[in-house]
Amino acid sequence: MKKTLHVVQAFDRALIKEIPVDDEQALSTKLKIAASTLEHRNGWLKPYERMAILKHAAQLLAAEQERFARLIAQEGGKPFTDAVIEVTRAIDGLNDAAEELRHFAGKEIPMGLTPASDHRWAFTIKEPIGVVAAISAFNHPLNLIVHQIAPAIAVGCPVIIKPATTTPLCCLELIQLLRKAGLPEAWCQTFITEDNSLAEQLATDERIAFLSFIGSAKVGWSLRSKLSPGTRCALEHGGAAPVIVDRSANIQKTTQSLVKGGYYHAGQVCVSVQRIFVHKDIITPFMDEFVKRVTSLRVGDPLLKETEVGPLILPRETERVMSWIDEAVDKGAQLFGGGRLSTTTLLPAVLLNPPVDAKVSQLEIFGPVTCVYEYEQLDEAIRIANSLPVAFQASVFSEDIEPALKAAECLEASTVLINDHTAFRTDWMPFAGLKQSGYGIGGIPWTMHDMSKEKMIVLKKN
After folding, report:
1. Catalytic residue among 75, 86, 100, 236
2. pLDDT by residue (tens digit) across 127-169?
3. In the annotation, is 270 catalytic?
4. Same domain? 450 vs 363
5. Of 270, 308, 317, 371, which one is the catalytic site residue?
6. For this structure, is 188 an active site residue?
7. DSSP label of 12
8. 344: domain range?
9. Does 423 map to a domain?
10. Where is the Aldehyde dehydrogenase domain (predicted)?
11. Could you tell me which residues come within 8 angstroms of residue 40 by beta carbon, excluding any fewer than 6 positions away?
């Protein structure tokens, strides 16, 4: 009897759908199909065909925005209003990949600069890098899939996508829309499995030319070490995003922004606001306003439009987060808010001055918790912010230009945002984890570059 996967609602664990899973034979078949599709060059989709498919898929997705938003809220637990925004971004991402093809080209290489290179023309052309394996995460179950497969489709790579087993439905539904839009099945196949060894087989198969991985650092770095020779990759992991709040910061605007950046999707975002360094001159009014806003967040069923904070993806994650909070409090941190709504859902919490050796100060929380630390000297706040082996996006809030520019220059981050929270992102901007937080650069144009190769052609004139 074929095995199945039970996909449940994150909030109440009610069954949404039972779907079949793939076995080792299915993986073998899918890899053969992808490799064969790449080998038959005469069957490659033309750029105008790829553009038309992606744009048509975007139109089909726009027509079903509410259905997809509801599915995101059900399987992933993201509040419905935020899920609607995720669908909007996914629509834009499909269009971005299509439009990027207008500028996706090689270049002329100058010849005749030496006698030996005279009488030649040289130029490069873009070609697909090969078969792409994409392994995705749960926290943006539609938009992350778009970020991994739309660039592959745009540049002409056959792609096999493995969604997170907690949130596979958005992926499956999106692939159906792409097929309705005219994409032949061989160009984008899904691989559904709970078997980590099969996922590793997919990533490390010698026919894979590029691995796109979004998920835990432990798994991602391990897979990178096992890739077949020649396979390139992009890894996107988590961080513990730092924010510096200067004494000149506008407290009302700053706290409003940080509440969104810290508690969006219950903190289950790789660049979620986590460590907030606040100047001692404003620590009291900052905490008063910040805690008031955090404890006023509406927590509950993500399908309700008034909900601002929903569940964590699995009940065991609530246990982990609660244990980390307890550890910080036992070591001297002050707790504001917090507690449980249910086995799946936590109330937002703020920790003041947790010690540097507490888990919440060292590791990615990935839950509805932020940590506030008082500081006196900007250099010291920057030093502590930079002290972890992870680095992704960072922020500074200041009405004075000098501390803002100093923090922007000295913070170890791929992106420093001034007067905005760390979770801000557009889908056409570069997005990259540094240190242990990732490898390569995300963002649709950059991923298209990584999933392609340039071939140089040299023409000798008579």
Report:
1. 236
2. 999 999 999 999 999 999 999 999 999 999 999 999 999 999 9
3. yes
4. no
5. 270
6. no
7. T
8. 241-418
9. no
10. 3-456
11. none
